[in-house]
Amino acid sequence: MLRCLRWTVLFALAAVTACGGGGGTSTASSSSSGSSTSSSGSSTSSSGSSTSSSSGPNFSGGGPNIVSLTVGPGPTPSSSFFNVPYASVTVCIPSSSTCTTIANVLVDTGSVGLRLMASALGTLALPAQADPNATGNVIAECLPFADGYTWGIVASADVVIGGEKASAVPINVIDDTGSFSPTVPSSCTSDGTALSSIDSLGANGVLGVGLFLQDCGSYCAQPASDQIAPFFYYSCNASTCAPASEALNLQVINPVSLFATDNNGVILQLPTIAATGATTATGYLVFGIATESNNGLGSATVLTVSSDSGTFTTVYKGQNLSYGFLDSGSNGLFFPDSSIPDCTGSAEADEFYCPTSTLSLSATNQGLNGNTSLVNFQVANLNDLSSTDFALDDVGGPATPITGLGTSYFDFGLPFFYGHTVYTAIEGLAAGSSTGPYVAY
Question: Quick one: average pLDDT of 181-191?
Answer without folding.
Answer: 86
